[in-house]
Amino acid sequence: MVDLTTWMGMFVFAATTGIIVAVLNQVFGIGRDLWAVHIKRKSEASYLVLRIAAILEGYAYACASFIGDNANAEQEPDNERQRHRDRELP
């Protein structure tokens, strides 16, 4: 234990306390920043997943429409069949 009855003992106690508080402040500050980055990255990932799902849903609908349109094409001889089919992919 530090002798707080002398000036030197009080100085050592104050310096030690200041150093410990400064280190704890830095550790908690870095931890808070890392936590904020983690939460932001997680939020952005959730948004991107929803955006990709919406894009893929539109693509799946376009593919289903493409197949449906070509399924109803007129059945003619092989040399004329290609003329009635839609050949552009979605």
Structure description:
There is one protein chain. This protein has helices at residues 7-71, 78-84. It is an all-alpha fold. The protein has one domain. 0% of the residues are buried.
The percent of residues in helical segments reads over 70%
Domain count: 1
Morphology: rod-shaped
Strand content: under 5%
H and E string: HH
Short description:
The chain has helices at residues 7-71, 78-84. The chain is mainly α and 90 residues long. It has one domain (7-72, 79-84).
Quickly list its features.
mainly alpha; 90 residues
Q: Topology, pairings included?
A:
Layout: H1 7-71, H2 78-84
